[in-house]
User: What shape does this take?
Amino acid sequence: MTATPYATMATVRAISGISTSELSDDEMSGILSLAVGLFNSEVNIEIGTGMQEFEEMEPDDDNSAIWWTKHYPIVDSDGDGAITSADISCYDAPRREGPTSIDVSAVTDPKIGKVTLAAANNGPVYASYSYSILPIDSQTFISCFVFYCAYLCWDRLLALAESVSMGNMSVTRRNYFKDRYDQMKSKMMGSMSFSMVNSNIRMDSDSDYFDDPDAEEG
Ligand SMILES: [Ca+2]
Assistant: This one.
């Protein structure tokens, strides 16, 4: 695997400055696979991932095999590093009515909640899945994930030689990307609060609320 749902290995190498001689592609790809699951659970705990169970899906206007989730982006809920049909379950009825599973062909576009069933279906269709409250293609989200990957990769490298001694002098190497990740996460949380406030109230041109200078940034 050279790509995660959120960023490519090339991006992580470019930001972290870690070459293939320090961490091979195989080693880095193992860390990135793990990073997706860990990052999702961090986002889940600290920022907010919602879970829907047996939510009624919306039909597509043109294609009866295509159904749409009401919440999106759909996330990688089984933590295997990819968003696939394994990350959503579809049924022909709500739970209380003893539903039967409907086969899913693909999560065609997780960012907009587009799902393709294995066969045409006249509905209704119900779905259980997890989604992110944050837009997973926003620059802040992607940057946060890339810094998280860089942090994990550098942890792996520094674990081999975190402190170097020469005679009486000892030099400790520090994982700078942990700080960058924490900063970006704070920024992401700040922008989420902003969008939640923004979606719940009507803006007033006289209001100075949105000029609040300490909204985030660290
Ligand atoms: Ca998955």
Remarks:
- The domain at 49-132 is CATH 2.40.30 (Elongation Factor Tu (Ef-tu); domain 3).
- The helical segments are 9-16, 25-48, 139-160, 176-200.
- Confidence is low (pLDDT under 50) at residues 196-204.
